[in-house]
Amino acid sequence: MKDETKCLHSGYSPQNGGPGVMPIYQSTTFRFNSVKEIAEVFDDPTKAHIYSRFTNPTVDCVEKKIADLENGVAAMCTTSGQAASLISVLNLASAGDRILSTSAIYGGTVNLFAITLKKFGIIVDFIDVDANENEINSMIKSNTKAIFGETLSNPSLQILDIEKFAMVAHKNKIPLIVDNTFATPILCKPINYGADIVIHSTTKYMDGHALQVGGVIVDSGKFDFTNGNFSDFTEPDKSYHGMIYTRDYPACPFIIKARAQLMRDFGCYPSGMSGFLLNLGLETLAIRMERYCENGLKLAKFFNNHPKIKSINYPGLENDKYYSLAKKYLPSGTSGVMSITLKSGRCETMEFMDKLKLASKEVHVADIRTCVLHPASATHRQLSDKQLIDCGINPSMVRVSVGLENIDDIISDFSQALA
Ligand SMILES: *Cc1c(COP(=O)(O)O)cnc(C)c1O
After folding, report:
1. Which one of 280, 310, 335 terminates a domain?
2. Atom 7 of ligand 1, nearest CA residue
3. How high does pLDDT run on average in the chain?
4. Order of strands across the sheet with 98-102?
5. How many domains, in total, are found in the chain?
6. Closest atom of ligand 1 relative to the 213 alpha carbon
7. CA of residue 203 to ligand 1 center, whole Å
8. Do both 259 and 331 map to the same domain?
9. How confident is the model at residue 270 (pLDDT cuts 50, 70, 90)?
């Protein structure tokens, strides 16, 4: 099936006389006829649903749909994108290990990696997303367990050369984890270029309607965890009566371990209702992405030619630094997110934003409605203007997320506010 068809039909097949729409299983638990049957599910957790802290039939359908869209073999939903990042890393690294991440990643992930994981004893090294193979290779130590990057970074809109990072990761016998939130599997399927694990904040385009926070982890099923670097996958799990993930589940050991071990212990699993709402968003994902890209490019061209705009980051523009990587990895469009920097100062930038009537000011992105965010007064508020510039954020920068309104209405709103 092609993507538009997968969005509607993957994951759930109605039975004869059964509901045509995926039902909501809003139940914490599942009943069995005998103790023996429960024991059998504990032996093989893929056999049935036991408890909604780690599996649920509605969420299960959504997981199958997302795995299918990403060309993966299995997926696991989480209650946030942050939880997806955390679990994908903790499934590979323990205290004493390292992770190598590009620095072109979401601010929340930077906090998680640089500060919180450090308290867990995991060190994250950061590397420039434009680094060459030798530079990447030289950052990998004997205890580095994975490389992490974002396809299309939030908010800087830099593009990860997935093939380059995958090649260096595989030469060092470690997997590449790619956060594919902004691209979605409609614009880019990182697994096709060598990524081993793909994660998302489903809060953004996948849900799409600003209804609920969520995340997902997808297993490509391609990484060889028996290569000697990952004993947690190849030795009996004492916490799960001796299960050996690579032996017992050779097709998708990553997701089974993440679920049986980490989701069981952390319990950040979405409810049936959440799965249902996420599925509604996914049903129209392919067709929405097409329009986000179309509106995004038109708005980016408007900003690109506007005398009051100093610069714009949108890799779909021919004059953007990442245009050639965009052609390769995101050939059908580069989403609806861009960042613009005004020629005037911080106060005028805030005034410009306050003058917007259609575009909403909120801490969100990749939504169905056009929205804007001023990093200097929101996500990076604690920094002085000088500190902002030192870390690459101009006080006059605005992150713009174009929605599905008519593009003429969107452009006239930005036009009057700039005027
Ligand atoms: C928003 C975001 C996250 C975090 O997701 P939440 O659902 O807010 O926890 C992670 N990565 C990227 C690229 C994001 O945009």
Report:
1. 280
2. 81
3. 96
4. 74-78, 215-219, 197-201, 176-179, 144-150, 98-102, 123-127
5. 2
6. 7
7. 7
8. no
9. very high
Q: State how far the Cα of 410 lies from the Cα of 227, in Å rounded to an integer.
A: 52
Dist. CA 100 → ligand 1 center (Å): 19
Per the structure, the complete domain to which residue 346 belongs is given by 287-418
Residues 293 and 265 in one domain: no
Residue with tokens 């580095």: 144
- Domain end among 238, 257, 280: 280
Tokens linked to 126? 């950061």
CA–CA distance, 279 with 65 (Å, rounded to integer): 9
Please count the other Cβ atoms lying within 10 Å of the Cβ belonging to residue 47: 11
List the residue whose alpha carbon is closest to atom 5 of ligand 1: 81
Q: What is the pLDDT of residue 400?
A: 98
Instruction: Indicate whether 269 and 328 sit together in one domain.
Output: no
β pairing state of 98-102 and 123-127? parallel
Backbone angle region of 116, left / alpha / beta, with phi > 0 → left and psi within -120 to 50 → alpha? alpha
Q: How far is the CA of 417 from the centre of ligand 1 (A)?
A: 29
User: Among the atoms of ligand 1, which is closest to the Cα of residue 182?
Assistant: 13
> Do 118 and 193 have their domain in common?
yes
pLDDT of 392: 66
Q: Ligand 1 pocket: which residues have CB below 6 Å?
A: 80-82, 106, 108-109, 150, 154, 179, 181, 201, 203-204, 213, 215
Mutation test residue for ligand 1: of 159, 177, 178, 204, the one with most atoms within 8 Å of CB: 204
Write out pLDDT tens, residues 28-51: 999 999 999 999 998 898 999 999
- Condensed to tens digits (0 to 9), the pLDDT of residues 390-408 reads 766 789 999 999 999 999 9
Q: What does the DSSP assignment read for 140-206?
A: --TTEEEEEEESB-TTT--B--HHHHHHHHHHTT-PEEEE-TTTHHHH--GGGGT-SEEEEETTTTT
Which H or E element spans position 408? Answer: helix 407-418
| d(C-alpha 360, C-alpha 160), whole Å | 29
Per-residue pLDDT reduced to its tens digit, 61-99: 999 999 999 999 999 999 999 999 999 999 999 999 999
- The alpha carbon of residue 275 and the mean position of all alpha carbons in its chain are separated, in whole angstroms, by 17
Phi, psi of 370 (to 5 degrees): -65, 130
| CATH number of domain containing 238 | 3.40.640.10
Dihedral of the alpha carbons of 118, 120, 122, 124, in degrees to the nearest 10: -30
